[in-house]
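hiii so my PI (J.) wants the whole complex modelled not just the main chain, which honestly fair. so below is everything: two entries, each one labled with what it is. i double checked the lines twice but i was tired so who knows lol
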Amino acid sequence: MSFVKGLKCRECGREYPIEPIYVCDFCFGPLEVVYDYAGIKKNLTRAKIQSRPQNLWRYRELLPIDGEPIGSLYSGFTPLVKADKLAKVLGLKELYIKDDTVTHPTLSFKDRVVAVALTKAKEFGFDTVACASTGNLAHSVSAQGAKTGFKRFIFIPASLEQSKIIASLIYEPNLIAVEGNYDEVNRLCSEIANRYRWAFVNINIRPFYAEGSKTHGYEIIEQLGWHAPDNVVIPCASGSLLTKIWKSFKEMKEIGLIQNMKTKVFAAQATGCSPIVTAIKQGVDVIKPVKPNTIAKSLAIGNPADGFYALQVVKESGGYGEDVSDEEIIDAMKLLARTEGIFAETAGGVTLAAAIKLIKGGYITKDSVTVICITGNGLKTQEALIGHTIKPHQIKPNLASFEEILKNINKQ
Amino acid sequence: MAVKVRIPVPLQRLTQGKEEVEGNGGTVIELVRDLDKKFPGIGERISEGGKIRRFVNFYVNEEDIKDGDEVSIVPAIAGGKAVNSKW
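here's the output for the full assembly
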């Protein structure tokens, strides 16, 4: 049974039926899924959720699907790691890492949104799924689309790094390498989406796709023992993840699964691409587009579609935002790895480094409960660390050579 | 001051199917008012209360519109119109 009422324009409020559409016909504003929360409240209990398998579908009443999910039965329900060692370094009492570096099957939170997008695409009757991406999204659509039996078209800029191309090619999608920059790939894809009846997960399926991000938030609340944290630090590219985590917290309260929600939402961006954080810091409502220049490529959206709404969430919740340099990103990636044993992608470095600044600035207080959202795995972006890690100890294949090195190691 | 204005597909119903029309105005909002006189209804689609709607982008050669300029009206893709970047 579905509790979805329809789609609604976030700008002018016009309502639309459930169809593969994504912009308001009238004012071009983005469309958002609306639910019958009173109906969900009567139907969904903590016990019911807890009785279900540990995947993202345990919150299915709050997701925009009508029937049974077609796949992704192992996606979601990633660990909420109590980060005591890191907390000690940062001087916090209670700190958690929501660890989507281990999301099944492609090691980023994109597996959540793609899970919902593909089930919805099947319900709409599409036989082909597509996306424009250079990284995490391409991997997830390639992999999950293979398992669920879709024809797949993945559009990338031809100049992409070989390691990222191979991580898509292994699933044998139709990989279209476009001779142009990312901007041109995106523009081409919106033209293709108009001409072919394909499910472009982040274009015509976007209102449904984006709802998948909410599961990251539901899990945080369930894993905290049905409590909302005091602070949550979230990386921002388009700003969609931040707005959806906020929506998930609000929904949990709305349907009565938690009593209180006073979470402050904090936005994290790289200084080389920080249009949302810049607007937060300047206290203005206009997001000024930028040309990205940062090692955090998965966050490098210069003109973020949900930037305005992300800004409103930060304001409404009493949060703030911080931006961090490439050097701070790498330092934070290393800190997370050596304290908590988690190897995050560059975006994770952004989030932790921003959290550190927010603590120093007094925006996050020491005795509050804080969750840092880590959204992708570091094995995918190893190039960023070349020349920045410690060096291996090179020895001859004999005991004397080893013991000489060991003496030096023990001295340090 | 005459400029050429490129009209996106969703608005071409209001311009009798024309992809490109002529308009007048020294600022973007003046141009919108002029277009609305010629093509009634187009104004409220791309502006509200004297301001351009949030999800409509205007591309102009320069900040102020000059004679002979070309102006493109482009609905922002809800997925983020990435500037030299990715989704």
